[in-house]
Every structure is written in structure tokens, then in C-alpha cells.
Write a structure and sequence with these properties.
- By secondary structure, the chain is α+β, with helices and mostly antiparallel strands.
- The chain folds into 2 domains: about 180 residues, GAF domain (Beta-Lactamase, 2-Layer Sandwich); about 190 residues, Nucleotide cyclase, GGDEF domain (Alpha-Beta Plaits, 2-Layer Sandwich), CATH 3.30.70.1230.
- It is about 40% helix and about 25% strand.
- The protein has 12 helices and 13 strands.
- The strands form 2 sheets. Strands 6, 7, 8, 9, 10, 11, 12 and 13 form an 8-stranded mixed beta sheet that branches. A 5-stranded antiparallel beta sheet has the order 2-1-5-4-3, with helices on both faces.
- β1 and β2 form a beta hairpin.
- α1 packs parallel to α5 and α8 runs antiparallel to α9.
- The longest helix is centred in the middle third of the chain and has 37 residues.
- It starts with 6 loop residues before the first helix and ends with a helix.
Length: about 400
């Protein structure tokens, strides 16, 4: 005989479920909460939540409960005919004894599992069926009645909203992580926190920064000795090492330019020690390049040398472009000067006088030949980081 739940108790139970489901946006947590409540409230032997893949349209078990074997939790053990009918039509199904029900009694799953009491309802949100909740009892008949279908549907309506919200959050987190593969996390967070639908373009902000540019010496000639696949693998290996170093020192990777990389310390997030961080990154990059070169030589490939340029000063950070295509970028003299210093050959770690002046006293550098940098009318002092210091392990 089915359990009777009065309307007052039903409303209270639904309120508790809604409150419980609103406490998490983790899809697996939401599904587990729904499944546990369904098994308890419906007094079912076992249950399954089946979801429709929003892209492929295929159905799969995303959660099971009750007596469903953990080893088989990803396999639907109930009546496939019932679940397919519910998802296709968007209508709930109740069977008091599936073995005698003309709709299902000939189905293989019903016969093999001796399925009796079955109830399944659709998960519907925004007028779209996104899955179904299914519970059954393989051995006892007449457990569920029509009012149980209505009660389970009310539960599923709440669940569908929570599942949809969790999926949307899961999707947004995936897109955020994907975005961070293309744009540094600092910029991702900065843009998302300050942008809105009305004003997607961020105004420029002035920042005191140190810009680091790197450039592989003789890369054009080197690339001619590699096929396309080998070249991409090499660059991915090289950049993966450089990126780890930069991120460890708090740098923001502004862009890649072929074999070159531009990094800023102090934007979009201000830093008081941006010059020290940039120099620390440069040193660590040289150490990592030395390790890479040892690996290249051991495999019979030529070693590389990388020029690194550092300049310190004021830049404007903000969006450049239009509503159709935006880029968060930096505009200012240090951008050009650091790029220029990175291309001096033979490749070295060079810094401007402004960067040198922003670093602690006692730093071991040697004077390099004066160079005329952008924005100056005469040649400026340039300093070279001693290779012996930078290459230490």
C-alpha cells in the first residue's frame, strides 16, 4: 500500500528540499542530494537520475541510490522503455505492477528483473526535458499510486532547476578556465570583476610596471631545420617552462609574438616590488633555458639563446578595440624598450637605467654599452645581468 503524505507535510518537505538544493552549485552534490531525498521520501528500493547530454542528446545515468550496486551505478538497471518514454514525451509514468502492465510486460528488462512497482518523471526546465528521475521496486507491486507521481514530479521540478543551475555554473567555470588558457588569470579576474553588459570596454588605468620581453636568438633560422609538427612541439615545451616561471613570480603574460613573450609585472594588479619580481623571473628563465639546452644537446639538437629585456615606467592598461573584438593590452614606453633590449645580439639579460634604479642596492650587474631607447633624445645607460649569477642552479 502506498504511503500517504498530507499536503501540509508535502509542502514542508518540498520547502526543505528547495532550501537544501540551493546550498550547492556542484552538480554531483546536487544530484546526490536529490537522489537521497527521493529514495527516502518515496520509500523506493532503488533509484536513478538520468540526464540528457545537451550536446550529443544521449542519455546516461548520472546518479544512483538505494540498492543500486555501486559497481553498476553508471548503468541503468530499470526499464529502459519507461525511461525513454518519459524523456521523449515529457510525461510521467506509473506502473503498479510492470509484469502485468500491457505497456511494459513484454519488455526484456521487466521480465529479467521481475520489475513490479515503477515510477518515473521528467526533469523539465525552460520547457525542455533534460532528463528523468526513476525509482522502482523489483519485487513488490502496488507501492506507488497516482499521488506519488505528482509528489515525485514536484520534487523533480525543484531538482530540474537546481540541476540546470549547477550545469550552467559548471559550464561557466569551464569557459572561465578555457579563457584563462588564452588570457592570464590576473586579467581574467580583472576584466570579469569590472565589466558589465552596458560598459564592456574597460577605461584605461595608469600603472607603474616593469615589462619583460623575451626573444629566441636566431629563431627564424632554427625553425627552418624543423618540420611543422616538431616546431610546434618545441615551442610548446619552451613556453610551458617559461610560463610556469612567470606565473610563479606573479607576472601577467600579455602576449606571445611568434617565439617572443611579453610579460608585465604590476598590471592589471598593482605591485610595489614589480622590478624585483621581473628580475627574479628573468633569472629563473635563464636557469630553465640552461636546463632545456642540456636536454637539447643530449638529444643531438642545437641549443638556444634567449634575449631578455627589462624596462620600468608608466603604462596605460585597458581595453583596445571595439564591441566586436577587444584586447586587454598595455601602452607605454616600457613595452617598446623591453622589446628592443630583448633583441640585442648576442642575446643577454639587459635592463634599463630605470629598472636598475628600482632594484635593491648591491645587485651584481655590469655596465653595457649605452643605447638610445624610445622617448629619449640621447643614449641611455644599460645594464647587463651577469650570466654566471643568472645561470646558477
Amino acid at each position: 500500500m502506498a504511503r500517504q503524505v498530507d499536503f501540509g507535510m508535502r509542502d514542508h518537505l518540498l520547502y526543505e528540499l528547495a532550501r537544501d538544493l540551493s546550498s550547492s552549485l556542484d552538480l554531483d552534490v546536487v544530484l546526490r542530494k536529490v537522489m537521497d531525498r527521493v529514495i527516502t521520501l518515496m520509500k523506493a528500493s532503488r533509484g536513478f537520475i538520468v540526464l540528457v547530454d545537451p550536446v550529443m542528446g544521449t542519455m546516461s545515468v548520472r546518479m544512483s541510490g538505494g540498492e543500486a550496486d555501486l559497481e553498476k551505478s553508471r548503468h541503468f538497471l530499470g526499464s529502459r522503455t519507461v525511461i525513454e518514454q518519459v524523456v521523449k514525451t515529457g510525461q510521467a509514468v506509473v506502473a503498479t505492477d510492470a509484469t502485468l502492465d500491457d505497456r511494459f510486460k513484454g519488455q526484456q528488462s521487466v521480465i529479467l528483473q521481475n520489475l513490479r512497482s515503477i515510477i518515473a518523471v521528467p526533469l523539465v526546465t525552460k520547457d525542455k526535458v533534460i532528463g528523468a528521475v526513476y525509482v522502482d521496486n523489483p519485487f513488490r507491486a502496488s507501492i506507488f499510486e497516482e499521488q506519488d507521481k505528482e509528489f515525485l514530479q514536484a520534487i523533480s521540478d525543484l531538482a530540474a532547476v537546481a540541476i540546470d543551475n549547477a550545469r550552467q555554473y559548471e559550464r561557466s567555470e569551464f569557459l572561465r578556465q578555457l579563457f584563462e588558457l588564452h588570457v592570464n588569470k590576473q586579467v581574467t579576474d580583472y576584466v570579469l570583476e569590472r565589466s558589465d553588459l552596458i560598459n564592456p570596454l574597460l577605461p584605461g588605468e595608469r600603472r607603474q610596471v616593469t615589462v619583460l620581453n623575451s626573444d629566441i636568438a636566431g629563431f627564424s633560422a632554427l625553425s627552418q631545420t624543423m618540420d611543422a609538427e616538431e616546431l610546434v612541439l618545441f615551442l610548446n615545451d619552451y613556453f610551458s617552462r617559461m610560463i610556469e616561471v612567470v606565473l610563479e613570480h606573479g607576472g601577467n603574460i600579455d602576449k606571445f609574438q611568434g617565439d617572443g613573450m611579453m610579460v608585465v609585472f604590476g598590471a592589471p594588479n598593482p605591485m610595489s616590488d614589480h622590478a624585483e619580481r621581473a628580475l627574479g623571473a628573468a633569472r629563473a628563465m635563464i636557469r630553465e633555458i640552461d636546463r632545456l639546452n642540456r636536454e637539447l644537446v643530449e638529444t643531438g639538437r642545437p641549443s638556444i639563446s634567449v634575449g631578455i629585456g627589462l624596462d620600468t615606467g608608466e603604462v596605460v592598461a585597458g581595453h583596445v578595440g571595439s564591441r566586436r573584438r577587444l584586447e586587454f593590452t598595455l601602452i607605454g614606453v616600457p613595452v617598446n624598450n623591453s622589446a628592443y633590449l630583448s633583441k640585442v645580439r648576442p642575446a643577454k639579460v639587459l635592463m634599463s637605467e630605470t629598472t636598475r634604479g628600482s632594484l635593491p642596492h648591491g645587485l651584481e650587474v655590469i655596465e653595457f654599452e649605452p643605447l638610445q631607447l624610445k622617448g629619449s633624445t640621447s643614449k641611455q645607460p644599460i645594464y647587463q645581468l651577469q650570466v654566471a649569477v643568472a645561470a646558477e642552479d
